[in-house]
Every structure is written in C-alpha cells, then in structure tokens.
UniProtKB/TrEMBL annotation:
Coiled coil: none annotated. This is MBL fold metallo-hydrolase. Residues 38-214 form the Metallo-beta-lactamase domain. It holds the Pfam family Lactamase_B. SUPFAM superfamilies: Metallo-hydrolase/oxidoreductase. InterPro entries: LACTB2_WH, Metallo-B-lactamas, RibonucZ/Hydroxyglut_hydro, Sec-metab_biosynth-thioest, WH-like_DNA-bd_sf. It comes from the Bacteria.
Length: 302
C-alpha cells in the first residue's frame, strides 16, 4: 500500500481558521523540521470553549489564541502530550482564563532508563506540566454544547492522547497521525510496539476526519493509517535486511537507509531505527549486546 503525504498547508500565522463547525485552528509560529509549519491549537465550541493543545510558550501564539477566543469563557484546556511544542502555554492560558487542564498525566518515558543511560530527548519535554484532571482512557468530558472523548494513544509519547469530538466523526489526532509526515517514535520516550497498537486502536473506530497537531487534515484516516502500518512494516524489513548484510550498529544502518536524508536529521533517524530494534529484540527476532541503545551491537537471532 502506497503512503502519500499531503504537504500542502497554509498555516495562516497570526490569524485563526475555521476547520469544522465550531472548531477554529490557530497554528503557532514555531516551524521546524519536526513541527512542519508549526503546532496546531484548536478551539472547540461556540459560547463556553475548550482548547486543545495550547502549544509552545510563545507571545505571538498567545496573542492570536486570545483573539480567537474573543473574550468567551474557556472551561477546559486539553493537552495531548507533554512535548514542548504542545503543552507549555497551558499555564499562562489557565492563569488568564481559569480553565482546568486535562491530560493523561505528566511526562514519563515509555520505559525506564538503564544505569548510565542518558535521555537525549530531555530538552523536548515539558516536565513542569501536571494536569488538574487526569484523563482515563476512553474518558468523556461534557462541555457547553460539546463532548470530548479521550483516547490513550501511546507511541509517539507514553502519555499521548487523541481527542474525539463526540457524534461528529472528528478526531484530534495530535502527533499520532499527521498527513504531512510519519510520527517520530524516539526511545526511551516513544515505543514502536505501543505506536502500532495505537494505530490498531484507532482503526477500530469509525472517525471520518482527523485534525492533527501539525499540518492539514487527514481526510481518509482509515486508508492513511493502513498506509502508516505498511510503511513501518517496510522499514522493519529494511532493518532486518541490513542486519543480514552485516550491519551491526545503528549508525551503519542510518547511513544506508537514510542516505537521501539531510545528515542533520540522522540523529533523529537513529532513534527511529532504535525504536524498531527495541521492538524486534522484544519479539525475539534480533539480539542485542545489552539493553537496546544507540551504541548497542545487534544481530539477527539464529
């Protein structure tokens, strides 16, 4: 199955865009190779509002959000996960609106670090955020003319959630499913087995339209998610093939697999390969000299 990405997107920085009935999108001006044109925040409702993913602590983004809110009360601030491009502005918005914050929980890695191992992604996490309300998987929050169901979708981050706007077919997929790119799965915070299971979880639903954390909408989410699964399985096969050809380290594999990728992104690519190798080791297909890590030695299990 061919996976086709949609990179056509107008972020409309400094303004807000209606993307569905009673849903506005505000894109933060924090463009990067990892955030595309910036982080999408969403405002849900007509009278008393909910805000999904407040975004980075950026003065310009805060100003635009307040313009979109237009003085209306905000009762809830939902946070999909605690990466620094999604959650930090929650504190300032809460101080200005009095809204309660809701999320699966504070930051935590997908697995414990082994002795002496350093989490190279520490700088990407908002370790200060703790929600007022801890959302359970499948929890439903009723608001003023809207209801949002929280769906735990770990993989990109251990505390990642998607939010379904009940009875609309609309799902806010955050960084789990995006139309412009695959999601980054970077251990120890991301986990490939969790990511694949979360795709299966969403495939069991009948949502018709995804609004992601970066880029434009996913208009045929079922077909797109099947393509994401096929893409990951293809990458897994390539890694196994590199091991058959004699590669034993992640840098060796990255140099071949990502030879057309900007070398500045090879570090992130290495973490993606590590996520696959963690999964392959756990399934007994590959062996590692120790706990899977960037500098471990890998072999096919004989």
């Amino acid at each position: 199955m061919t996976l086709e990405f949609d990179t056509v997107f107008e972020p409309a920085h400094g303004s807000f865009v209606k993307v569905a009935p009673n849903v506005l999108r505000v894109t933060a001006p924090n463009a990067s190779p990892f955030t595309f044109h910036g982080t999408n925040s969403y405002i849900v409702g007509r009278d008393t509002l909910a805000l999904i993913d407040p975004g980075p602590d950026d003065e310009r983004h805060l100003k635009t959000l307040l313009e979109a809110i237009a003085g209306r009360p905000v009762s809830h601030i939902f946070v999909s996960h605690t990466h620094r491009d999604h959650s930090p502005l929650a504190a300032r918005l809460q101080a200005l609106t009095g809204a309660r914050t809701l999320a699966y929980g504070p930051y935590r890695p997908a697995r414990m670090l082994s002795t002496g191992q350093i989490n190279t992604l520490d700088e990407s996490h908002d370790t200060h955020f703790t929600p007022d309300i801890t959302l359970p998987d499948n929890g439903l929050i009723d608001g003023d003319g809207w209801a949002i169901r929280a769906i735990h979708t770990p993989g990109h981050a251990a505390n990642h959630m998607a939010f379904a706007l009940e009875n609309t077919g609309l799902l806010f997929s955050a960084d789990h499913v995006m139309s412009w790119s695959t999601s980054i799965i970077a251990p120890p915070d991301g986990n490939m087995a969790d990511y694949m299971a979360s795709l299966d979880r969403l495939l069991e639903r009948d949502d018709q339209f995804f609004l992601p954390g970066h880029g434009g909408p996913v208009r045929q989410p079922q077909a797109f998610m099947r393509g994401l699964k096929a893409h990951r399985k293809m990458r897994e096969r390539i890694i196994l093939e590199r091991l058959k050809k004699g590669d034993r380290t992640i840098p060796e594999m990255v140099r071949t697999i990502y030879r057309k990728t900007d070398p500045h992104l090879h570090s992130a690519a290495g973490l993606s390969v590590l996520a696959h190798l963690e999964d392959l080791v756990s399934r007994g297909l590959v062996t590692s000299t120790d706990t899977p890590a960037i500098d471990s030695i890998y072999e096919l299990r004989s």
